[in-house]
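Quick review question:
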């Protein structure tokens, strides 16, 4: 069985954020998913994606909120709850 490269592990975490952005996600959980220590994960994610996991998650939530504002009739409060 082939081992995942560090970059593949980081992409897997990024994909997790992309699909679970509305759920509470914490740094330790994300680091465990990549099988990295918390601090190594934070540095590696920033180096790979030019943003910390928190910045990436926030950007994802804002992008989705913009889409919902433009395409739906949900209130701002409903959208806030929808995107986490």
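Suggested answer, residue by residue:
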């Amino acid at each position: 069985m082939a081992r995942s490269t560090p970059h593949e592990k980081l992409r897997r975490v990024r994909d997790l954020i992309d699909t679970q952005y509305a759920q509470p996600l914490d740094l330790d959980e994300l680091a465990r998913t990549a099988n990295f220590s918390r601090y190594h994960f934070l540095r590696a994610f920033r180096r790979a994606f030019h943003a910390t996991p928190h910045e990436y998650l926030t950007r994802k939530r804002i992008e989705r909120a913009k889409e919902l504002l433009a395409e739906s009739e949900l209130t701002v409060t409903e959208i806030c709850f929808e995107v986490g």
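Why it works: The chain has a mean pLDDT of 92. Helices lie at 6-20, 27-34, 38-49, 53-71, 76-83.
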